[in-house]
Each structure stands twice: as C-alpha cells, then as structure tokens.
Design brief:
Elements lengths: L1 H17 L4 E8 L5 E4 L4 E6 L9 E12 L11 E6 L2 E7 L6 E7 L8 E8 L1 E5 L2 E5 L1 E14 L7 H18 L6
Antiparallel strand pairs: 1-11, 2-11, 3-8, 4-7, 4-11, 5-6, 5-8, 9-10
Helix pairs in contact: 1-2
Length: 184
C-alpha cells in the first residue's frame, strides 16, 4: 500500500509540474493583394515578422513555413520550372514543375532561425536557356501566399487551476506516504 501511495504521489506531482506550461500557436501570413509573378528576371523576397507576437523571448518548440505557388503558363506552354527556396539566405530546398492548380510547399524550420523573431524568405526561378549570358527562355510561377506557424511556450505562463490542484494533490500524497504509524 505504501508503494502505491508513493507511486500515486510521484505521478500527481510530475503531472502538476509538467502540466504547468502551456503551448501557444502563432502565425504570420504574407498574402499580397494580387498574386505576384516570380520569373527568371524578377525574384521575390519578403519578411515574416513575429516580433509583434512577443518574439524573441518565448521558447519556440517547433516552426513550419508553407508557401503556395501555381503556374498559369502551363496552359500555353507546359515546362518544368525550378524554384529555389532560401530562408535567411541559406538554401532550404528546390522544387521542379509547379502545376497549374498549384500546391503548398511546406518546410519544417530549425527553431534557431527564429531567434530574432524574423525570417527572411526569398524565391528564385530558373531559366530554360541562356544565350550570351542572358536568359532567352525564362521560367515563371505565381506566388499566392506564405504562412509561418510557430508553436511557442511563453515564460511565466500562469498555471491553470486544475494544474495547481494536481500539484497540491501530489504533494499531499507524498506527505501522507512519508508519515509512518508509530508502534504502541
């Protein structure tokens, strides 16, 4: 019975301590009024800024970036574009042959990229053919939106009442389990 009291007390205490932090999901969206054409001549760069949401400061548990691209020129001339994604200047990936109907390209981010609360994104599109150093057959895609999502835990979050109750119950169970009856 005593071992059961110790186990229950330890479990309630651990739940109370571990349950006191609460996660929060924040997002930042870049959505131009008119979809932007990115081509071999004109790249795009933009900033996701989470500073209005209190970053830096909170612990970033995870982060992802979703970029929606489509290609309207597939109607007239189907060809494979090459899009290069860069985050804070580092190449994060490439994709080829963006479709007419488009899709979200989603990337899991290293949380250290958001240490300053900002993420600089740039998109570049390749070229089919060069002549004398100039692109004579450009590629293009349409940029529709970009959504940065971060799962954060703020420092000093106030525990909810159920968490405080669990913590108190764990402490009481441990105190009761420690008390020994005296021999009479």
């Amino acid at each position: 019975m005593k071992a059961l009291k110790h186990m229950l007390g330890a479990a309630a205490l651990a739940f109370g301590i571990c349950g006191s932090a609460s996660a929060e999901i924040i997002t930042n969206t870049v959505d131009p009024l008119i979809d932007f054409n990115i081509n071999s001549y004109f790249s795009i760069g933009y900033l996701h800024d989470l500073r209005p949401d209190g970053l830096p400061g909170p612990v970033i548990n995870s982060a992802s970036l979703s970029i929606y691209l489509y290609d309207i020129t597939d109607l007239a001339r189907a060809h494979g574009e090459t899009v290069t994604f860069r985050f804070d200047g580092a190449v994060a990936g490439t994709t080829s042959n963006v479709t007419l109907w488009g899709q979200d390209y989603t990337f899991a981010l290293d949380t250290s990229m958001l240490d300053d609360g900002m993420l600089w994104v740039s998109l570049n599109v390749g070229c089919d053919r060069f002549r004398f150093g100039f692109c004579t057959s450009p590629q293009d895609v349409m940029f529709a939106r970009s959504v940065l999502t971060a799962d954060i835990t703020r420092a000093g979050d106030v525990p909810e009442p159920a968490t405080l109750f669990s913590l108190g119950a764990g402490l009481l169970c441990l105190a009761a389990a420690r008390r020994r009856p005296t021999a009479g």
